[in-house]
Amino acid sequence: MPGNLLKNPNGDENLEHWELTENGGDQWGTGDMPEDSGHTFNNESITKYFCTSFKLCIKRQVIDLLAEGYDPENLDIIQPAVNVEDWFSSRTDCGCIYMLTVTLLDEHLEVIEEFKPEEVTIDPNCDECSWKKVSHTFTDYGPGLRFIAFQHGGKDTKYWKGRYGVRVTGSSVTLDI
């Protein structure tokens, strides 16, 4: 079984494998580390990040666990822990908004359980802008897990032309099986 079930989690392949559900302003883009506000990332193997614009940018990936080789009976009996991780940062000259939603889905794409932390607004005048981690582990969610939807994004808070919104990278979804 693969480690990270998300394809292209850091932007190495530009926007390949991601469904752009919202692509506002000057749209989604990618950049090279260290990002233009100078924050280094804690993992040197990650060399790129995704960046958002002045209107909402949301991207989504739906993981088909059976297509990834997981046995439905094992998924139902074992109910493996589903580990989610995402990293986000802000530029030092422009605030941003970050959002994340991860949903466990059954065979009919009906919601079994959802992780949706509060939207984060970063103001560089008073908040730390460096990379921050969001993580969550789903456990005891019951039988029926077949898909995992991972969705994240945001925008800047000053409506500046270009890509001054939240930066995201290091996204991962793994199963303990």
Order of helices and strands: EEEEHEEEEEEE
- Compute the CA-based radius of gyration: 16 Å
Number of helices: 1
Sheet having the most strands:
6 strands, antiparallel
Helix content: under 10%
Distance between the termini: 9 Å
User: Per the principal axes of the C-alpha atoms, what is the gross shape?
Assistant: elongated
Q: What is the strand content?
A: 35-45%
Which regions contain 5 or more consecutive residues with pLDDT less than 50? none
Q: Let me know the average pLDDT.
A: 92
How many beta-strand elements?
11
Find the structural class using helix and strand composition.
Answer: mainly beta
Question: TL;DR of this structure?
Answer:
The protein is mostly beta strands and 177 residues long.
